[in-house]
Amino acid sequence: MTDYEIRRIGPDEAGPVADTVRAALLGGAISDEDAEWGRQTWAEGRFLAAFEGDRCIGHVGSFDGDSTVPGGARLRTAGVTRVGVLPTHTRRGLLTTLMTRLLDQEHEAGSVVATLWASETAIYGRFGFGHASNTQSIAIDAAAARPLSSAPIGSTRLLDRSELDDVVPALYDRVARWRPGSMSRQAWMWDRSLKAAREPASRNTSPGAYVAVHSDARGVDDGYVHYEVSWTPRRAGKIVGTGTVHDLWAADARTETELWRYLLGIDLVATWHGEAQPVDEATRHVLADGRAYGITQRFDELWLRILDVDAALSARRYGPANESVVIGVADERFAANTGAWRISASGATRADAEPDVVVDIATLSATYLGGMPWSELRDAGIVSADAPVVLLDALFVEHPGPYCGTEF
Ligand SMILES: CC(C)(COP(=O)(O)OP(=O)(O)OC[C@H]1O[C@@H](n2cnc3c(N)ncnc32)[C@H](O)[C@@H]1OP(=O)(O)O)[C@@H](O)C(=O)NCCC(=O)NCCS
Q: Distance (Å, rounded) from C-alpha 300 to C-alpha 118?
């Protein structure tokens, strides 16, 4: 590879850089109009591009935001995104250079954690990221799922297109952020995700995109679902519909079930698909036939890297346990993250004691949100065989588990 220069870019240079990222992620060139619409998405964050002459050959970036951690605190988060190297320049260390620089910048800027969704699981462990939450694709057979065994609560209404921007983002901020792993969403993310529901469909076309809002018994809004419905090709002579859930959030698990009750009652929809649902949705337990809730695929969701161990460990809550445990941490990149921390039900403090278990930063990061049991990592040989995993799980594992639900 000839010499290249790395520099931070803003919205003015976004066009060619976005083309490079699209080329890496199997996309094609887009229209000037779409490129113009995407410009705003390059304004709020830090974007680092590598140029060989005038040509952008690789890019990494991060959005500013915050993430909920167990107990409800929200930590400043670098949402790592738009990672791509041109196919002509891969496997020569470009991502390593770009990612190292980005993480240094984020560490200096005060981000406590960095998070991302990975295209492949082999890429990010070397930079200290650990697999921290899971998600799953589901398909629910609506006829077999009905009726639900729980008693209905409250009511559901469909939003008018003109109400979406006023109601949905504010409702997400109010009801969704209790889940560890949930993150703040920038205005452009809403602009993009609600586009189909906001714009008029052309005459007589399917699919249709909608948002339904649930209100509790007092009439206070406490959840919403953004979904799409469409006709599917004839199946055994019948014409049937299919539904897809894009975004479903509620103040608690019971209200999530009320949103599913609404969806499963929509006439003509034979199957509901969820592309990336939480792995612990309680709704499956109240379906007439539990097997109506089919899990198509389970996969890794958030990858997380702790940038500031002191701040991260002291921000989250820990489960009830009578004893404490000392965890030794090694981080080759950030010296202040190497040390020992005593964790107990009442919190985390730096310790001057012999550790009960020693892990690298990627392993600690995987366990941080409470979705990756230490016992599983011990069974896999990633955590040492003599680690006190029962105690570690009692302190770290969370229910409901972490779920981000925002692909970025
Ligand atoms: C993933 C990607 C950015 C890696 O860029 P790169 O410049 O080739 O990465 P590097 O040369 O710095 O690789 C560093 C190390 O990671 C390994 N690695 C990088 N990408 C890998 C992958 N996809 N699978 C397995 N190993 C990978 C390299 O082999 C190398 O290992 P080594 O140090 O043992 O030799 C690039 O392959 C790409 O753009 N892929 C398509 C788009 C994509 O998947 N982006 C990520 C979106 S989340």
A: 8
